[in-house]
Amino acid sequence: MQSKLISQKAIEKIQQSEKILLVTHTRPDGDAVGSLLGLGLALEEGGHQVQMVIEDGVPHSLRHLAGSDRISRKVEGEFDLVIVVDCSDLGRVGKALNGRPAPDINMDHHITNEEFAEINLVDPEAAATVEIVSRLLDEIGLEVSKPVAAALLTGLITDTIGFRTPNVKPGTLCLAARLVEKGADLSELYRRALVSRSFEAMKLWGLGLSRLEQAHRMVWASLTMSDRRAAHYPGRDDADLINVLSSVEDTDVSLIFVEQPNGNIKVSWRAQPGFDVAEVAKEFGGGGHAAAAGAEISGSLSEVQMLVLERTKLILTGGHYVQS
Ligand code: 5GP
Ligand code: MN
Known about the structure:
Helices cover 37% and strands 17% of the residues. It is α/β, with parallel strands linked by helices.
């Protein structure tokens, strides 16, 4: 893995490029959108032509960010440079880069990153990918405008669930303070990203919570396609219900199983310190961090649920216990 310092090669490549393509993962979260927008808007203000692409578009809960309307769903044209942000493997990007050579730069903070680009700026110690983006902007000498600061702060707020995760370091808080100094509105961005929810999202939570179960210090729920239709919820994500599940007392690992339109099941894990759910997610073709991981698995909801709970139980019963 490359050191925390941004490689000189990445800086040179960016400075020499006119047309830059930025992409991030499907079902994007705040760190994905924040990294894409923070980097994209700063590069644009620095005189580059930038296209920002997310195959699934921007979720409703992040559309207040300035510049989010500039993010398209498809790649159009040719580019001098391709940068992928917040993706541990290329499969996470979806089909957006199909038929194109390997990306030039990969900026990410997932421990499971596969280093798929020519230059890999990967730092698993970073609390969010926006920390790495912010370092890069500093080293290139690009200005952090108010919209850039708002995008970057949103990535920090969401990936640390409001500065609550154990990977928050003094540097994370110093960066947040700097972004507030640049004009980012902490309380408003916090409210938008973590507190305010659509009526439809709440209805979906209710349907999922009605099937809440627990055993072996695990708690889990599921969301079906029929729940989505009943709640009129437009996204194919869990509307952040997993963050609610992870607050259940006397629980080491919480999980959510979300039926997808393609018939697969999206699984999210959240673990208390001392447990590593990235390992089990990787077994199922996914990835993430020790404390938060995900995978998309083929099979029926009941099959996937049974298999995943069985494997996850192993972590809890000593098989893969990690000392904190
Ligand atoms: P979530 O469960 O909220 O989607 O994601 C939790 C963490 O796991 C995030 O860091 C996310 O990037 C990662 N993650 C989620 N789904 C996948 C997946 O299908 N593949 C990989 N490699 N990582 C995932
Ligand atoms: Mn992400």
